[in-house]
Design a protein that fits this description.
The structure is a homodimer. In chain A, 42% of the residues lie in helices and 16% in strands. Chain A is of the alpha/beta class. Chain A has a seven-stranded mixed beta sheet, sandwiched between helices. A six-stranded parallel beta sheet of chain A has the order 2-1-3-4-5-11, sandwiched between helices. In chain A, helix 11 links the parallel strand 8 (239-242) and strand 9. The longest helix of chain A has 18 residues, at 187-204. Chain A is elongated and about 85 Å long. Mean pLDDT of chain A is 90; it is low at 336-353. The first copy, chain A, binds a DNA duplex through residues 3-5, 13-17, 19-20, 23, 27-29, 32, 47-48, 50-57, 114.
Chain lengths: 353, 353
DNA sequence: CTGAAAGCGCTTACAG
DNA sequence: CTGAAAGCGCTTACAG
């Protein structure tokens, strides 16, 4: 924690020379460089990043704003961003808004106070209160994107991905399918719901049999939503498509709690392909999103934007894939061991599409 | 992104007055304050944190270094730290070392470059290469702690917690118990193994029947470790105590893959009490660690240390609890439906304690 | 190739 | 109560 003056004195040079030894060593006479390098080593000198940032007007830090850090899928994208950032000599500042708009805005403001050079935003709203800031401060929107002329986005084709999974379910013979969606504010959830509807209507010519209920991407919300769907055995779906894996885990729990089996009674599909999904029994069929690549591309786009703010804004769509699992089967695979009890249909949430 | 000079000019005062309007408003004449406040509002002025930090020699930022951010238990402790930090007006910088020593040291060095006022370290090693830095820079060690005279720690009593879970297993009648531990570098894993041994030996007077194999806290390592334990049906344990929930999830997968059932054939216990553990079927019995409180206390200790570096170093032990689950039962609950095949005993890893 | 000097945007004794 | 000035630790034209 010596400063540049200490090092300069020790090496018998000016502070400018010490600075150059670090940033442009080839501009120094080898002899001088050696003296400075030695002094740096002896003092354990590390330039103060605050002072560097102030002088250079660049912090080499990016802020990542997520809304649910404990969600393993989000964490894995964050990890990929961090990997790439580190390689590029950047620090990463993570803000977990916990879906609270106030926190989100606080992190956004913080970033613009010279703390970060740009923001990677995971949520469906801009991290600033005033839209015009988006034109001035580099922001990249990722996963659950929002749209703005000066904000690049990186995500999969959520609509097509949902269509693909629905095609799989329909292909297996399912005619009564439930969706457990994300919150109404989630743009990716809208896209997926659109895709699901398109696939269903495209195949059957109508939407009868497709039902949707809303979750909030937490396992508990998936459990509750599924429990609501099970309230009415007569209209019970034969397959459930959850818009993330955590909700699928919750749904599986609710199905088990009702004395039903996956997939014999109800097939379950997820979204994200988090690691634990592969460890469930049965292993969850889900939509794989390329977490690593999403993070990498997001960082690269942000870095480009920091370097040249006027360049064209690109919107990257990365490929998804269907991850096979044991949680899907054809409908009607179970003996009819459950009594009726046609109770309160659609009590909570579920609405026809 | 106006600067203080712009605001001062607009309000017709000096920059010193603008600074005071923010940090000590009561020192200004109400009239002046009003003019400045108005100018601040009109320009959307936010002080540059870099410049503030440089001048004040305080960044009001703490760095959190974890080794596995996607682990939901770790993420939940990080979230608690962030909550507390935000309330105290601090930023949080998260570094995910991914168990790589080089990255860990890089984050540690970064923090000391004026970027952070202190570090909360999750791993069992100090974040610096030279020990003496620990006396100079505030560090708090958390969860998987290391020990150093000037570093406060916060964790549960891992030894006692393991004893408690072992007592539960022994009380159910288990006589052949396997441990799936963390890596050898993990101090908390050592403590837990000690506790497990003490409980076993205390009850039986010997260690025959207690077996340990090593994992790395990932689900996949739990699966592999469990598969190795199942290699020899004759010596198969009737209960497995995994030193985190992710490994327990992996172990359950391996048990299912071998055609066995939890808990009928093998009881499984975990550690951490992550949210998904409650959603497994069967719900996992585990050791609850108070994530929220651990994070809160860790931040508070760090803040104290930043404020008064010379104060006494405290070591906080927070209470754990046993979370009941359906993954435990008495041994021998299953019919003997599996053939023998007494193959290669202890081929991989498992060693008698 | 090297140094003296200005300045990044703030804060805070020091005067008045 | 308010302002002028020094300085936090760097970097980088500008001279030489």
């Amino acid at each position: 924690m010596a400063d540049i003056r200490t090092v300069a004195a020790l090496a018998g040079v000016s502070v400018a020379t010490v600075s150059r030894a670090l940033s442009a060593p080839d501009k120094l006479r080898p002899e001088t460089l050696a003296r400075v390098t030695d002094a740096i080593a002896r003092t354990g000198y590390n330039p103060n990043a605050r002072a560097q940032g102030l002088r250079r007007q660049r912090s080499r830090t990016v802020m990542v704003i997520v809304n649910d850090l404990p969600n393993p899928f989000i964490a894995s994208v964050v990890r990929a961003i961090e990997d790439r950032a580190r390689a590029a000599g950047y620090c990463v500042l993570i803000g977990d808004s916990q879906r609270c708009r106030t926190h989100e805005l606080a992190y956004g403001t913080m970033a613009t106070r010279g703390i970060a050079d740009g923001i990677i935003q995971f949520g469906p709203r801009p991290p600033f209160g005033t839209e015009s800031d988006l034109a001035r401060f580099p922001v990249v929107s990722v996963l659950d994107c929002f749209h703005h002329p000066s904000v690049p986005t990186v995500q999969i084709d959520n609509r097509a991905a949902a269509e693909d999974m629905m095609a799989r379910l329909i292909g297996l013979g399912h005619r009564r399918i439930a969706l457990i969606t994300g919150p109404v504010t989630s743009s990716q959830s809208h896209d997926r719901a659109d895709g699901a509807r398109a696939a269903f209507a495209g195949h059957f010519g109508h939407l009868e049999g497709l039902v949707a209920t809303t979750g909030d991407y937490s396992a508990e919300s998936g459990r509750l939503a599924m429990a609501a769907l099970l309230d009415s055995p007569a209209r019970r779906p034969t397959a459930v498509f959850c818009f993330n894996d955590l909700m699928a885990i919750g749904a599986m729990k609710a199905i088990g709690a009702a004395g039903l089996a996956v997939p014999a009674d109800i097939s379950v599909a997820g979204f994200d392909d988090i690691e634990v999904a592969r460890f469930l029994a049965p292993a969850l069929a889900t939509v794989r999103q390329p977490a690593q690549e999403i993070g990498t591309v997001a960082f690269d786009l942000l870095e480009q934007r920091i370097a040249s703010p006027a360049a064209a804004v690109s919107h990257v769509r990365l490929p998804h894939a269907i991850r096979e699992g044991e949680s899907l089967s054809r409908p009607g695979m179970a003996r009819h061991r459950h009594g009726a009890g046609a109770a309160s249909a659609m009590r909570r949430g579920p609405t026809c599409l």
